[in-house]
Amino acid sequence: MKRLVILGGGESGVGTALLGKTKGYRVFVSDKGEIKKKYKDVLLNNEIEFEDEQHTESKILNADLVMKSPGIPERVALVKQIRAARIQVVSEIEFASMFTTATLVAITGSNGKTTTASLTHHILKQELDIGLAGNIGDSFAKQVLEEDHDNYVLEVSSFQLDDIKSFKPKIAVLTNISPDHLDRYDYKFENYIASKFRVVENQTEDDYFIYDADDEVIAEYLKAHQIQSKKLPFSLTRVMEQGAYLRQNEIIITIDNNQIIMPANNLALEGKHNVKNAMAASTVAHLLKIRKQTIRDSLENFQGVEHRLESVLKINKVQYINDSKATNVNATYFALESMAAPTVWIVGGVDKGNEYRELFPFINEKVKAIICLGADNAKLVKTFSNMVDQVVETQSMTEAVKLAYKLASAGDNVLLSPACASFDLFESYEDRGRQFKKAVRNL
Fold first, then answer.
1. 118 labelled as ligand-binding?
2. For a FRET experiment, which of 46, 198, 199, 332 has its CA 20 to 30 Å from that of 97?
């Protein structure tokens, strides 16, 4: 019996453990932190051996195969030992894909991947048997075990792509690339770019690659590297013979000689970036032979993603907006771009080497006050204090929302769009977003 060791007892780790056990592996789960009770219960009920708050090397280095959680970086000593012992390391998406013949749609990118994956799933589920997994929802491995759908939409991060060997989606989508997570890539942008492009590395000419043709980073990479799959770019500015483009408020999608045209002005999601997300999702749907009317209806009734430009409440004619999912500068760029009223902006958290310059035009034009919400706000204060009259600091979400309430006037927006990770003051971006919504409702 082959021994499968899983590092990390979260959603992907426990899903992999269940699938691995069913497929005949001897499974051991090890987590340096504490495993949540709900996951411990699953492991106990299925008689899967595990440990938490420690890694016992003797029980790990005798593995035939290691699945490591995407949150564990390569620089960790234990990972280096596993590599030195020549033990194969895979990610959950790689492991689960070995046990399914489903059609896989893999969506990656620095921003927009959750919205695009959710929107794609929303369209496809109207006519296909489809699961939504990866960075979102129940783990891919668990779904392969329990439901094995005919199709999957997978939201995949660069960390998940780092540990693939043969993972091959039928359709790969790359929404955009901007500097993010550079602390995991030796602060080299080119390493991060190469990681994102791993989504296409096993594709053949029978597969498809959908990408943003307006993104300079993607365009430069494609000039220098040969890709096997059929390219279906999308653009807001240029006509695309194959792929999607915008013409006077209409989205036009062409694949081979088959064209569909859809109105862009009735999209449920606002903002230019969401036109692109809609183009990507619609191109996938068109490829998978979903009817035009179904695509159109789905784009118009999609509810959006929690913590992504989510309207919370209007109080005294001030709109409160939760964009806690904006964990990098590029995501906040899209948020500020879509603001149509003077904005009180709540920003801050764990800075991943951020460069804020691209936000300056929007700050001059739209932002009336800035609330810095982080354990260390020095860089934000230094960067923005000359640009707006009021820059205030706080370490509490309740306090931040109370300050925003005082600073905003009728007709303004209050926008939580942190441009940073959340781990200094919050458990996760979801925790940060929920605390914001709770504080707004308590005003």
1. no
2. 46
Roughly what angle, to the nearest 10 degrees, separates helices 272-287 and 329-337? Answer: 110
Q: Say if CB 345 and CB 371 are below 8 A apart.
A: yes
**Rounded CA gap, 402 and 54, in Å?**
41
In the chain, CATH 3.90.190.20 covers 310-441
- pTM: predicted TM-score of the whole model, two decimal places: 0.82
Please, which residues have CB within 8 angstroms of residue 129's CB and are 6 or more apart in sequence? Answer: 149, 150, 151
Q: Is 229 annotated as a binding residue?
A: no
Residue 175 labelled as part of a binding site: no
110 is in an annotated binding site: yes
332 is in an annotated binding site: no
From the candidate CATH numbers 2.30.30.20, 3.20.20.140, 3.40.1090.10, 3.90.190.20, the one assigned to the domain spanning 310-441: 3.90.190.20
Do the annotations mark residue 112 as ligand-binding? yes
Is 292 assigned to a binding site? Answer: no
pLDDT tens-place string over residues 282-293: 999 999 999 999
CATH class held by domain 94-301: alpha beta
